[in-house]
Design brief:
It contains three helices and no strands. By secondary structure, it is an all-alpha fold. The chain has one domain. The two termini are 18 Å apart.
């Protein structure tokens, strides 16, 4: 697998994780526009020219995803929302 394919997969995982977490809390925080924007982004990842993307770009996307997950961590620690995944994904 070449580096551009690896970059694409890493970005897809970040966006997919955000969509999954949003789906888990969507009953309380209904924001269809937010979800649609990430679903659109997920579709557009396939059109990105990953030759123009650097490791630093990918690290920034991963850091932003981790920061968002850190902000949402408290919601899940209370047990109110249950689990996002039934089993460990990665």
């Amino acid at each position: 697998m070449n580096i551009t394919d690896q970059y694409r997969i890493r970005v897809q995982h970040c966006v997919g994780t955000i969509i999954d977490v949003h789906s888990a809390i969507s009953e309380t925080f209904k924001d269809e526009d937010f979800l649609m924007q990430f679903e659109d982004l997920e579709e557009e990842i396939g059109n990105l020219d990953m030759d123009l993307v650097s490791e630093l770009d990918i690290l920034m996307v991963e850091q932003a995803t981790n920061t968002l997950l850190g902000e949402l961590k408290g919601l899940f620690e209370t047990g109110t929302y249950g689990m996002v995944y039934r089993q460990t994904v990665n």
